[in-house]
Design goal:
The structure is a single chain. 39% of the residues lie in helices and 29% in strands. It is an alpha/beta fold. It has a domain of 181 residues: Vaccinia Virus protein VP39 (Rossmann fold), CATH 3.40.50. Strands 1, 2, 3, 4, 5, 6, 7, 8, 9 and 10 form a ten-stranded mixed beta sheet that branches. It is globular, with a radius of gyration of 20 Å. The chain binds S-adenosylmethionine. S-adenosylmethionine binds next to helix 2. S-adenosylmethionine (SAM) binds next to helix 2.
């Protein structure tokens, strides 16, 4: 992610970086960023799902072993120290959908999330933007879905499925009406209104047919979402799925899912 280089420059020299990962899931965003940012870091990993939080320790321990980093489980999280970084991470089980004005993080923190922004509503995002500006936070919102789904080889039913999937993306995911594919543009507009300088970069997700299982899971997920949105379906969606599965089995099938990363920082910082 090229934006990480820009992020590092914006953060400058720090004694200890305070970082909060909203909707941290299994900790993938932490594991991506921690060694790339380097130095001393203190993380809050926030999620409301105890099952995914519980898996973070195992994934991060295995990752640390592979890196040759020192991993220690603590009462509320873990510490991990590699050649160029030393992190303490604390798990916080919390419902982020509650009033964003109540979200607490230190002054001048890095506030980050990945694959979360398309789930949230405009009003929630405004609340986070206000809270971020007031606390002089630097923001990195990674992997926000932008509505593009391209399947290869193309099928006559793809456009209809994409329309239905994108409609489904706008339904409430717990934060109010979800921004879905509108999230990257909305985030850029809102953060600019709050005085942030915004840098955007595409970070598309490409899947080849060497990842058959994941590929099939995605197709099934889109099929279910489309079915939910299409009251009058006469079997066209099932036929679409059959054709897509056949293309996958025949090899040469590929998927691109459009995503964007966004860096936002307070001007003059
Ligand atoms: C699509 S996953 C992304 C996980 C992780 N950031 C990643 O990139 O792998 C969204 C995450 O947000 C969490 N989440 C969704 N709604 C939430 C809420 N209201 N409060 C806290 N976490 C929430 C989910 O539990 C899930 O772990």
């Amino acid at each position: 992610m090229a934006l990480v280089d820009s992020l590092r420059k914006r953060l400058g020299d720090y004694e200890t970086l305070a970082a909060v990962d909203l909707g941290s899931g299994t900790g993938a965003n932490f594991r991506y960023l921690a060694p790339r940012l380097g130095g001393r870091q203190r993380w809050q990993l926030v999620d409301d799902d105890p099952r995914v939080l519980a898996t973070t320790t195992g994934f991060t321990r295995a990752w640390a072993e592979e890196l040759g980093a020192q991993f220690t489980e603590t009462a509320d999280g873990f510490t991990v120290s590699g050649e160029s970084f030393q992190c303490r991470a604390e798990f916080i089980r919390a419902n982020l959908a509650a009033d964003p004005a109540n979200l607490v993080w230190p002054e001048s923190a890095l506030v980050t999330c990945s694959a979360l922004l398309d789930l949230v509503s405009e009003s929630w995002l405004r609340g986070v933007a206000a809270r971020s500006r007031d606390s002089k936070a630097t923001l990195l919102f990674a992997l926000t879905y932008d509505g593009r789904i391209q399947l290869n080889p193309e099928d006559a039913g793809d456009a209809h499925v994409r329309t239905l999937v994108n409609r489904h993306q706008r339904s409430d995911k717990g934060f109010g009406p979800a921004l879905g594919p509108a999230a990257p543009d909305a985030a850029a507009t809102i953060l600019s209104e709050f005085g942030y300088r915004v840098v955007r970069e595409r970070s598309d997700w490409r899947l080849g047919d060497d990842e058959q299982q994941l590929h099939a899971m995605l197709l099934d997920g889109w099929f279910e979402a489309a079915l939910d949105m299409d009251d009058g379906d006469d079997g066209a969606l099932s036929r679409w799925r059959q054709r897509r599965r056949a293309a996958l089995a025949a090899s040469g099938s590929g998927i691109l899912v459009g995503h964007e990363d966004l860096l936002a920082y307070v001007r003059g910082r």
